[in-house]
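Complex record, two chains
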Amino acid sequence: MMNHIDLSSVLRQTLACDLYSNLVTRNTGSAVRQAIERVLSESEERALTVIDFSQVSMIDFSCADEIVAKLLMRYASDDPPCDAYFLFRGVTEDHRDAIDSVLERHGLALALERDDGVEVVGVLSDVERKAWNASYRLGRVNAYDVASEIDAEPDETRRTLEALCRRRLLMRVEDEYVTVGTTRG
Amino acid sequence: MTTVITVPPSLDDQSFEQVLEQVAPLPTDAKVLVDARHTRWASPFGLTALLALAQTRAERPALAVPDHDDTASYWARAAFFHHAESLYELHGSYPKRREATESNSLLDITPITKSEDVHNVVGRVQERASAIIKNELKLESKAIMGFAMTLSEVCQNIIEHAGQGGWVAVQSYRWTKRLGRRVVVIAVCDAGLGFRRSLETTPGHLPTSRWDDATALEEAVIRGVSRFRDRGRGQGLAGARNYVGRWNGKLSVRSGSARISIVPGWDDDVPLSEGLASFPGAQVQVIIPEAVSGGGPAER
């Protein structure tokens, strides 16, 4: 199942006002995140949600912490409410300072859609980044495919891929793995 | 008996200390007359701090408005009298209506009491700030978004920590005396809890032997400590600090009896002042100067 969440629409509903397109203040961020979580609570067991920043002028640190960091932390926890994955769309350089800052602070990473594909940004170890990039290049993969591609041990690679699944950057499909954003709407 | 508090001819974050030195020894219910008759110039910090000062008084203070027409007119345009009318008993003549003329003000003095006020402030400032930062400060376009983020975060400091409303003003002007270049200045002043008292409400807070206003400011501004346990808190001022560092600006935060500053090469302020006259709340000033040349940060 796929959800598309236009943050500017959520913002307007949250503020009950059409005047603003800025994601600012912790209160606003908290309200927007709760709106996203309501959508996710109606989803099936597994859902990919596109978080769309295209119509957002700016986001400050507090709002980024509430929306981006807390959302990722909740669904990447040991006891997530559902099997949710996130793809961030429409994120420009203007948004990156705040988003990168909160990812750094909490040690998080996310999948970012660009014109020419998807990249993962934030805090990843070298091996995690290599494994994710290899998975993205190869499409649906198993641990042996990735281990061969990055010249690593299969068992170690499997552990890395499982860690990326827990971080919501890869989806497990039976014995194989698919990067978030490989199939997107 | 009424105590007369003399406002210096030029009122900014430094000279405001002279005002506080006169006010601090007085009980809050003492009658005071804030005498600004001979004041000729006031920075956004000076004006917002004067409003915050009135909020600290149990007895409604009086304020003698500037004698000089140009000064009174400027204070009126900045909305000072509009807000001061509800806080001070005003003496002297001043323009009752705000003239609709072009001013240096990016944002007239605006109260901040709730989250929506921050949306309003950021929305109002964004377009004009963009033009001024690019065309007058000659900074890269990257500086524009950071400015709005910084403004948002310093305003939120009031909502999150002050426990009562405060004031914000944003102006652009040529700072001839200090710099000889244009600057954009954000001033955010409140007379609320202040950093030390706010951090003391942290669950499990145990004050050290040198716990005071200066230590609290170091914790909040330099180390990004917040009264909330949430690890994501405390990023706002850290973000503002990074922003001023990147664009060769100055950040100063006064709270209680201390002031901490991120001091650029063009300024000779000290990083930490202690033992100042005690004043409640937090008073923040951000100064972003015009680039010397080429659009990048100057004098790094």
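Note: The longest helix of chain B spans residues 115-136.
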